[in-house]
Amino acid sequence: MSKFELAVEWGDRHPKLGGIIGSWAAYVSHIAADIAKYPAEVIGSFGYDDYIGALSTRNALEGGIKQLLVDEQDGEFFIVKTIDEYFRCLTRDDPGRVVIHSEPLFADYVNDESFWWLRRIPKGGSLGYEIARVARAQAGLRY
Questions:
Q1: What is the distance between the terminal CA atoms of the chain, rounded to a whole angstrom?
Q2: pTM value?
């Protein structure tokens, strides 16, 4: 049975799992477009706050997967896995954990390695540059 149409709890909202999957896919597509279109040192159309929104959406998706017990028997499992792999291709490990330490929204996940996407940063593009600027500011460096 498909779980796309089932509602999940996300704060005070109850979106359908399929809608959250679609949002995550759209965010990942925006990240890819930013990397392809904008070189570093420019402001792109997809900024730091958008990236935080993307990661928050992936957090909500993880919550939905757990609520609805999505597993390898469900088509949704493989769709999410494919989108996640594309995200991994577009990003790299964040050894300084810049994003997870800069966002109070993610404080609960600092020690939870299963939320791996919170420990990834874009490989390039204007978004990668913008996140590097955040990292430098946190370290007290000028940019």
A1: 52
A2: 0.90
